[in-house]
From TrEMBL:
GO terms for molecular function: acetate-CoA ligase activity. GO terms for biological process: acetyl-CoA biosynthetic process. GO terms for cellular component: mitochondrion. This is ACS2L synthetase. Residues 73-109, 114-154 form the AMP-binding enzyme C-terminal domain. Gene3D superfamilies: 3.30.300.30, N-terminal domain of ligase-like. InterPro entries: AMP-bd_C, AMP-bd_C_sf, ANL_N_sf.
Amino acid sequence: NVSGALCISQAWPGMARTIYNDHKRFMETYLTPYPGFFFTGDGVYRTREGYYQLTGRLDDVINISGHRLGTAEVEDVLNHHVAVAESAVIGYPHEIKGEGKVLAFLPLKHLSKGVYAFVVLKDSGYMQETLAAELRELISKKIAKYAAPDYVQVT
């Protein structure tokens, strides 16, 4: 039962060997962080039984009101709600907060209006009217009030 960075010790077919016109960046990004290993950029959880669960990109960070948040951190809290099957978090420009956070895809016309949360429910019968408030409260308690989504949409 341990979490960490997913690194691979041996080469494999189809493995990237460079970044076009920027080999130095390739070396710094994938080979320097963990000498002797290829760093995939992903976080991972390994169970006692030896099973691996990818937990998200380690380099996905969004800036909310001057605070840097990992997307996996917000997704993890949302996914702990009894009704939520899965979520995804991305950032987008926000006039007041800097980047906002979104949990799926949304039409571009909405991007300047605030923070959106998109979630997939386990059961479509859950009372969606109360879901937004519950998710905001959960994020506010587990992370911080500034991280709570302004809008929640079920996808």
